[in-house]
Each structure stands twice: as structure tokens, then as C-alpha cells.
Task: structure prediction
Amino acid sequence: MKNSDSVWDFVEAKREAFFALSDRVWDAPETNYEEFHACDEHTRLLIEEGFRVERNVAGLPTAVMGEAGEGGPVIAILGEFDALPGLSQEAGVAEERPLVSGGNGHACGHNLLGSGSMMAAAAVKDFLAANGLKGRVRYYGCPAEEGGSSKGFMVRAGVFDDVDIAISWHPAAFSGVNNPISLACNELNFHFAGRASHASATPHLGRSALDAVELMNVGANYMREHMPSSARIHYAITDAGGAAPNVVQARATVRYLIRARTLTELLGLVERVKKIAEGAALMTETTVRSEVVSGDANLVGNTPLEECMFANLQRLGPPAFDAADNAAALKFQQTFSQQDIAASYARFGIKPKKGQALCDFIYPLGGGDGSIVGSTDVGTVSWVVPTVQMRGATYAIGTPGHSWQLVAQGKLPAAHKGMEYAAKVMASTALDLIVNPALIEAAKADHRERLDGNPFVNPIPDDVSPPLPESPNGR
Ligand SMILES: [Zn+2]
Result:
């Protein structure tokens, strides 16, 4: 049998089709369960590649799954294709220039993320067929990562129940195995209801829902001193009850995003915030109703999988960026502050190299300061399936997350090279697992050990539905 590294040739053979897929998704950025075009594009290529395709996965109209191969273990490669609102930007130019004022933009590189993951799955499929190997590879096209927690709904629906191992990646400034650190989070709406009244003539008859929201926020702000310092609480008043100050506001809604290191810590914090809401309702003689909007579990790491993926990164070596790639990235670096760039390197304890705009190395396993940046719905998957992720360098060092600069770099040759690079590492990691059942068993044992005494609670309760939009064109 051929060495699993020869799967890299299969990845290379797919360059044209998958770079084009990524670019088409970039061209039509869609957000939060509205990724109809992106999902169609992914579905079409899955069919063309000969995958067995399942649409409407977990009842989500913009989720798709493709499976190939027979028997053996099931390896899932997870992809995303959603964009962010308000970050429309012309491709390739190092100055802020929206294509559509107020439009969406691929400011987290998910055009590359989904296409690279499917590229890996397609190469594994071809390798299994060419070598007559038993094993199944699946590509999961997951919508709404940015605030929609689709993978949490997919976990709840059991779509990963027969998966042995999950693999994913994220576009980044540096290449390496992802440090499995993220915050568990819950987003909740608190709807307050009071009684309207003339604010001057009969204020004593009114009960203000907006007062309740303000008091709740004061309470939450006082709680900050008495919660774990790694936890985070953010809020936005999504309904202030109207624009007329001469009316006592009968309704008001505040949305809370609560984050904590672990699921247990998160659920405890959510209960405390609920008490604060009840306290605010009590003070103002209003009523309050809360509802969960979305939620992600924290990431669970996996030592055997991380070591395996790291070995693959090392065998392949860093992505082959050339002088032209570096020159293009340098132009973007000129729009960042020196602090942005220095902070980026500092996370890995690496001294900045003059004139270097793209990462030409692989950071060490467990590298980085473990700083917590945010939450991801991959976290929820990692509680039910042993999961590993990598970061592949696709943009200039120092690029801020969710920025116009990130959007602008999404179609550059360096972005494509980084995507191909990630596809290669994910593909050979998947094959290492398929041909080595002992490695899968080791990963499962590590997973069991980490979760021992920590029962999984999906931060999305059973009665919460995904916030699906009306489908366009009667779909
Ligand atoms: Zn992202």
C-alpha cells in the first residue's frame, strides 16, 4: 500500500475546483442560516465528486453532509461557510473599500474553511478507492458558526453519533495544531414586560420594562467582581421599548452573551444572571421571561490526535509562500499597528522577523500562551467525538480577526496555498487514523478520561429551535 502522504497528490489534483469553490463562496457572502448559495455550491461539488449526499442535516436547510467509502471507521471533516455582517470589502486591496455598503464579508475566512475541509475529504475518498481501503470519510458543511451554534443543534440531533473522530481547521496567521482552548458560551434573551403609561401625567401607574433592563445590567456589572476572571459577560439592548421618552416602556429586551472556561462554570453563571433578571423584575414590578438563543461548549483537547496531526504538519513542512505572497501580505501589514503585529508573535513567544509578513514555520505543539479568544461551536462536537483542529496560515501576521483586512486577503494566492496546506494535513491525519485502529482507540480512551466526572450538557436546551430565516425563492 502507498504511504498515506501520497494523499497529498490527490489534494493537489483538486486545486482548481476547490480554489474556485472558495472564491465563489467569498463572492456571495451569507450569514447565520442564510447560506443558501454557499450550501448549494458545496452540495453541487459533493455530488460531482461522487459523495453520497444528505441535505437538510439536522433539519437545517443550509447544512449538508457527504459520505464516501465503505465499512471501517468514520472520520468526519468539519467545514463552515458563513460570513459576517457589515464587513463587505473588495478583494486584494490594502485599503478599506466596501463592495456593498453595509454588506456581508468573509471576515473569518470561512470561504476557505469549508472548501479546504471538503478538499481534504475528497482526497481521502480518492485515496481509499485507489488503495481498496475500508473506511468512511464524511464532510459536514455546517452553517451559522458565527453566533448560530449550528453544530450544537447538529449534536443534539445525533448526526455525529456514529462518528469515530472529527477533524477541522481554521484559517489563521500561523500554522500549527490548535490549542484546544475556547470558552463555553450561552446567548440568552431576557424579555421584560411592564405596563405603559403617560410618563408625565400618570407615571405612578406605569411599570417600566426599560428600567428593569437597566437595573439588570447594573446587577450584572456588580457581579463581575465575584465571578471567575476568565469568564465574560456582554450584553446588548435589542429592544429598548420604543423611541418615545414620554411613554413608560411596557416592554424591553436585553440579550446576554455569557462565557466561561467550562460547561459547569457556564451553567452556574447563567443561573446567577437569571437571578439578577428576576431581581430586576421584582424591583420594578415587571415580569421577565428568558430564552436561550444559542450556546457552545468549550473545546475538549485530545493528546493522541494532536500529536498525530502535529507529526503530519512537520512531515509536510510549512506552506510554500513565495516572495510575491509576502509582498502582498506586507501591504496589509502596513495597515496594522506595530502592537498588533508584535502581540501576534508574542502569543507564541517568537521574535518578529523584519520583512516577514507570512508565517514560514510551524509553531510547537502546545505553543502559544493559551490565551482565550472566544468560543466556537466545534467545542460542542468535541464533547461527543474526539476532535482535533489545526490552524493554517492564510493571511498576514497581525491581521485582526473579523476585519476588512481579513476579507480582502481571502482570495489571494497565499489564502489558496494555506487552504491546500490545511487540506493536505487533514487528509493525511484522517488516513493515519483509518489505517491505524489503535490510534483511534487511544484517542477515544483520552476522550473518556477527560470527560470522566464531567457529564455533557448541551448548552442548547431541547426546546430551543435554530433561528431559521424564511427560505428565499420558495425553497
Ligand atoms: Zn471563524
The chain has a mean pLDDT of 94. The chain is about 40% helix and 15% strand. The pocket of zinc ion is lined by residues 108, 110, 145, 170 (CB under 6 Å). Residues 143 and 160 are 15 Å apart (CA to CA).
